[in-house]
Design a protein that fits this description.
The chain has two domains: 3-29 and 287-399, Aspartate Aminotransferase, domain 1; 31-285, Aspartate Aminotransferase, domain 2. The chain has 15 helices and 15 strands. It has helices at residues 3-10, 31-47, 49-55, 57-71, 84-92, 111-124, 141-147, 171-181, 200-203, 229-234, 270-286, 288-307, 334-343, 357-363, 379-399, and strands at residues 19-20, 78-81, 102-105, 127-130, 153-159, 185-188, 207-211, 223-227, 246-250, 253-256, 312-314, 325-329, 346-347, 349-352, 367-371. The longest helix has 21 residues, at 379-399. The chain starts with a helix and ends with a helix.
Length: 400
């Protein structure tokens, strides 16, 4: 085993308990992430929560700096929130949508984002337009360019890597299109952060939402929103702004915070903030390009081996694929198969039709097994997973 891989695994206690191929759900935390949270929780228990937050001020500042560095941004542009969906919604709420306004998105946006667009359509009469896909998969930049010509378009919103497949959307190319059209650009980077290098300058985005728990390998229940200087200068702020994000300056007036903090809420889980900061620091030490390249190589190897198995259909499409492998297994509901694999020490997850109606219907599949390796996984683990799926596939055919 490569010395680096060995070190990454030694840093990760969970590697010794099971084969973890559910990093698109939540990656295994490095020991340092756990330690950062436990130390702060012990401090809260012994000294008081508010007092402990004061004592951790420098460490919290470091956490913001680490997340910002991960994105090629500055700490002033980072808002810490509960998760990527909250971050995305905070950004959406900064727009005063009215009847007839248009949101342009893709056919493979994250389910919660799609639901938010549809809610805006139902409540405010906003029109949702989805760009056409390329034949190889993924949004067609030319289609986006044509849609953005409509002066009623208020926002382009794109999920970099959708939850239901390994597709990687051409977010940099779409950013160029949005900037040229003068349309604000919101990127959901939830599945990308930690496996694909992210540079918000190259993305040209106004907002970028992310989470700690997936390929970044941080804790659950914490995420972040990047807010560009351009958005701050426009005066963008969320619909519901609280005492963290604004000053109440007179009986009938308030002033938003000068930085991304205006998108935050007062109450913080500071132990999770410190855990996310440590996860970002660890990712920077590993190198997102290096770690992500290995993760995607492992996924490609797994995808190739599964393609050779009878009874398995690999569902991923796109000219570039992430470290997420989705398959349909003959004779199996993906949720039941995921449960079976867990009893055998293999963590996976299921992606259901309701998570991605458009994409799943086009693929004619009701559920898909999702396998998402990371850089600390091994080729030997891939062989074990493939063998388990070979056995399960044979069992499914026999049962049918």
């Amino acid at each position: 085993m490569d010395a680096l891989v060995k070190q990454w695994r030694e840093d990760t206690p969970g590697c010794f308990n099971q084969i973890h191929f559910n990093n698109a759900g939540a990656g295994l935390m490095p020991r340092g992430v756990l330690d950062a949270m436990v130390v702060h929780l012990n401090r809260e228990a012994n000294l008081g929560a508010y007092e402990s937050a004061d004592d951790a001020e420098a460490a919290v500042a470091d956490a913001y700096a680490n997340v910002a560095k991960l994105l090629g941004a500055q700490p002033r542009n980072i808002a810490v929130v509960e998760n990527s969906t909250v971050a995305f919604f905070q950004a959406l709420s900064a727009f005063d949508f009215k009847r007839g306004d248009v949101i342009v998105t893709t056919r493979n946006d994250y389910i919660s984002n799609q639901l938010a667009y549809l809610s805006l359509a139902r409540r405010h009469g906003v029109e949702v337009r989805r760009a056409a896909d390329l034949a190889s998969g993924g949004a067609d930049p030319q289609s986006v360019k044509e849609l953005l010509r409509d002066p009623r378009v208020r926002l382009l919103a794109v999920t970099w890597v959708p939850t239901n497949s390994g597709l990687v959307q051409p977010v940099e190319a779409l950013g160029e299109v949005a900037e040229a059209a003068g349309v604000p650009y919101l990127v959901d980077g939830c599945q990308a952060v930690g496996q694909i290098p992210a540079d918000v300058t190259k993305l040209r985005c106004d907002f970028f939402s992310g989470t700690a728990r997936k390929f970044l390998r941080g804790p659950r229940g914490i995420g972040f929103l990047y807010v560009s200087d351009r958005a701050l200068k426009r005066g963008d702020f969320p619909l519901y702004i609280d005492m963290r994000g604004a000053d109440w300056v007179s009986a009938d007036d308030f002033a938003p915070a000068p930085d991304a903090r205006r998108f935050e809420n007062w109450e913080f889980a500071y132990s999770l903030v410190l855990g996310m900061g440590e996860a970002a620091r660890y990712a920077l030490d590993v190198g997102v390009e290096q770690g992500g390249r290995r993760a995607r190589h492992l996924a490609a190897t797994l995808r190739g081996k599964l393609n050779e198995l009878s009874g398995i259909r690999v569902l991923d499409r796109g000219s570039e694929l992430a470290a997420i492998v989705t398959i349909e297994v003959a004779g199996w509901d993906a949720t039941e198969l995921s449960k079976l694999l867990r009893t055998r020490g293999i963590n996976t997850s299921a992606s259901l039709r309701a998570y991605a109606v458009i994409d799943m219907d086009e693929k004619r599949v009701a559920s898909a097994l999702r396998l998402s390796p990371h850089y600390y996984n091994t080729e030997e683990e891939i062989e074990r997973v493939v063998e388990e799926l070979r056995t399960s596939t044979a069992r499914g055919r026999t049962a049918s």
